[in-house]
Write a structure and sequence with these properties.
The structure holds 2 protein chains of 2 kinds. Chain A has 2 helices and 6 strands. Chain A is an alpha+beta fold. Chain A has one domain: Folate-binding fold, CATH 3.30.2270. The mean pLDDT of chain A is 96. In chain B, 28% of the residues lie in helices and 27% in strands. The chains are: A alpha+beta, B alpha/beta. The complex binds flavin-adenine dinucleotide.
């Protein structure tokens, strides 16, 4: 599998470490009243769809950036790749 | 028809004209008391034990393809009960004992072969961990032996004992472990269940669940609506997809695991051997092929095929452990979809929807559990209470912090 890195071009997936569903970017507020329930959801439950999946890959043996890769997980086709930083900022996170 | 030596002789003398199909091919009835979704080993075993214990019920197994087309027909057939944790070990030992009696139980040759499993250790720390696991097994009444280097060498002289980086220091041996013929397990349970009146319905994919007032009433399928009193889902790698039909999200990710078989060789490997310094395990089938595998590919996948980096990694592991494997040619390789759970252990539990029950999260190790999982799931479906050996395998353990995490790596499915 080759991942089209937005800054570095096509890179072998072997250079990356896989974390999981990109929903992990949306870490719940630990001080919210219902934090325990939300963290259970965040930590343990997954959509795990058989189709397009947005997921976090870490370019560990490269520029050490985090990417959000949108991949069809029945065909391994990569549809879109973004810098996780851009995605996080767009979702209102500080960094 | 009962299978026996006498029957084989009789058929041989009469031109083999008396053999019939091993199970019927019925059209689905409008409704059943129990519907099991998934005709893998677990679904069929569940139906078998359900029918055997609660024979009066109408029971069906719905399978989207042919039975055994999923992981039951794709695994590397290792059976063992060498787990560390209390939530697991009694369950896997129950499964092991059921394996020991399976062939008589279902009157089918499943080629259960207790040829032993040897987990190699390569450091003092790893030997301590194995000693601890062996002791935990023995506390649960399970056989375990810690071998030193010379004992390992006597058993498997072909291993690489000159590896300076990962020296073989010994191993943990469970002699009662071994292998079974995976397809025969499927066919044996299918035939056994069919003989008890279970309808096995193939080419029947579940596409929807009818849930009203918090209770399930039946299933939409590619062969029409089928009413159900109780529904038990055992669909392994497709768990998240099927349970999504009930609006549920699971503590599960789907990942691909590959397996490999070499050309047939003369008897070479005494049992199952696992490399403790990389992820590689190997056994030899009765046909002579070396059957081996290693890590999952490591990212979510529903494609029943893997990618090349893992092939390389597995072969490197094989070469490091037993360099002679480099002389064998690879014949076949394939992949199956694992229901990787958040703590590496399975779930056999009720759901919040009345009448809907779930069995899954088997990761790469559910073949050995086929027997026990069937018995425990049947127990749960019939009695609404968990079987004592599966009482820890619940949905709410993640919420309550009661994880059954053998490796202690946390909620990262690709590390289990
Ligand atoms: C390469 C590989 C090696 C393995 N090695 C081992 C090993 O050595 N030892 C071990 O213990 N375990 C091993 N496993 C794991 C083991 O195979 C599985 O955990 C186990 O088979 C899962 O249970 P099952 O047999 O019921 O699954 P499956 O055989 O996958 O059964 C699930 C069935 O559900 C059906 N289904 C899915 N969706 C639907 C639907 N919507 N409607 C109707 N039917 C549906 C599928 O078609 C499938 O037939 C291995 C797995 C793989 C892939």
């Amino acid at each position: 599998m080759l991942i089209p890195h937005p800054l570095l071009g096509l890179r072998d997936a072997q250079e990356f470490t896989y974390l999981g569903d990109a929903a992990l970017i949306d870490r719940p507020d630990g001080l919210a009243a219902d934090a325990a329930g939300r963290f259970f959801d965040y930590g343990y439950l997954r959509d795990n769809p058989a189709g397009e999946h947005r997921e976090l890959w870490f370019h560990e043996q490269g520029d050490r950036s985090w990417l959000v890769v949108t991949r069809n997980i029945t065909t391994h086709e990569i549809v879109r790749v973004e810098l996780a930083r851009d995605v996080a900022l767009a979702r209102g996170r500080g960094r | 028809m009962r299978y026996s030596g006498f029957r084989i002789i009789r058929e041989a003398l009469t031109g083999h004209k008396g053999w019939g199909p091993a199970w019927r091919d019925p059209a689905p009835r409008p409704a059943y008391d129990y519907v099991i979704v998934g005709g893998g080993g677990h679904g069929l075993a569940t139906a078998y034990y359900l029918a055997k214990t609660y024979a009066k019920a109408r029971i069906a197994v719905l399978e989207k393809g042919w039975i055994g087309s999923g992981n039951a027909g794709r695994n590397t057939t290792i059976i063992r009960s060498n787990y560390l944790l209390d939530g697991n070990e009694p369950f896997y030992e129950l499964s092991m004992q059921l394996w020991e009696g399976l062939e008589q139980e279902v009157n089918y040759n499943a080629m259960v072969s207790q040829r032993g499993i040897l987990n190699l250790c390569h450091s003092d720390g790893q030997r301590d961990a194995y000693r601890r696991r062996g002791n935990a097994m023995r506390l649960n009444g399970v056989d375990a032996e810690l071998l030193d280097r010379d004992q390992v060498r006597a058993m498997a002289p072909f291993l690489n004992f000159d590896d300076a980086r990962f020296p073989i220091k010994g191993g943990l041996l469970q002699r009662r472990a071994g292998t079974a013929r995976h397809d025969a397990v499927v066919w044996g349970y299918a035939r056994g269940a069919d003989r008890l009146g279970v309808d096995i319905i193939q080419n029947c994919e579940v596409t929807g669940m009818r849930i009203e007032g918090g209770r399930i009433h039946g299933l939409d399928t590619t062969r029409g609506f089928i009413g159900a009193g109780k529904v038990g889902v055992a669909v392994a790698g497709n768990s998240s997809r099927v349970m999504a039909l009930a609006g549920m999200r699971l503590p599960i990710e789907s990942h691909v695991l590959q397996a490999f078989v070499s050309e047939g060789l003369k008897p070479l490997i005494p049992g199952v051997i696992t490399f403790g310094a990389g992820h590689f395990y190997v056994s030899q089938s009765d046909k002579g092929g070396l059957v081996f595998g290693g890590d999952i590919d490591g990212y979510n996948s529903y494609a029943q095929r893997g990618n090349l980096p893992v092939v390389e990694d597995v072969c490197e592991g094989g070469m490091a452990l037993m360099p002679m494997i480099g002389r064998a040619r690879l014949l076949r390789m394939w992949g199956g979809i694992m229901d990787m759970s958040m703590d590496g252990s399975p779930i056999i539990d009720r759901t919040d929807i009345d009448g809907l029950y779930f069995n899954g999260g088997w990761c790469y190790g559910g073949f050995k559990a086929t027997t026990g999982s069937g018995l425990c799931f049947a127990h749960l479906l019939a009695t609404d209470s968990p079987h004592p050996t599966a009482a820890a395998m619940r949905f709410d353990r993640f919420q309550k912090g009661l994880m059954i995490d053998e490796k202690g790596v946390g909620n990262q499915p690709n590390l289990h």
